[in-house]
Structure formats: C-alpha cells, structure tokens
Amino acid sequence: MSSELPPVARALMVLALAAVTLGFGAIGLCGGYFTLMTIPALLQGHVDATMFLIISVPCLIGGIAVIKVCAGKMRRLMSASRPPDRPHE
Fold first, then answer.
1. CA distances (Å), 2 to each of 14, 36, 48, 82, in order?
2. Which of 35, 34, 15 is nearest to 23 (CA)?
3. Is 82 exposed, middle or buried (0-12, 13-18, 19+ CB in 10 A)?
4. The organism sits in which domain of life (predicted)?
5. Can you give the pLDDT at residue 2?
6. Residue pLDDT, tens place only, 70-89
7. Rounded to 10 degrees, what is the CA torsion of 22, 24, 29, 34?
C-alpha cells in the first residue's frame, strides 16, 4: 500500500506519525515518571497514592503501545521510500 503513495503523501504521513509518536511518547514518559514516583509512597503506606497509579499506569502502557505501532509504520514507510539497490555493472 505505501509503495503506491506519491512521495509527498508519504512524507506527510511520516511527519504525522512522527508527531503522534512524540505526543504519545510524552504521555508514556509522564506515566512512567508518575509511576516511579508513586511506588515509594505506596511502600511507605500512603493509600492515596493509589489514585496516581490508576492514572499513570494506563498512560505508561498506552504510550508504549502507540509508540510501538507508530514506529513500526514509520519504519515500513521509510523502507518503502528507498529505491531498490542496483547491482554494480
């Protein structure tokens, strides 16, 4: 499918996927940060830190999942945009 795209459309799609990857990367990074900051509070017995985990863990998991999907699609689009190697004559 991506080989049928014109180069301009392929470039725009790669830019859009890069923006999505950066946005969800920030969400995943924020989720990871709050998860790591909440675990010591939970170990000290602060029960109200559970609310942070309810928010941060899904952000961490969702961010990682979307980054994985977008990175795979970008890799396929970038590899389809390269011209095939020609053997030396």
1. 11, 39, 48, 12
2. 15
3. exposed
4. Bacteria
5. 47
6. 888 888 877 865 655 566 55
7. 150
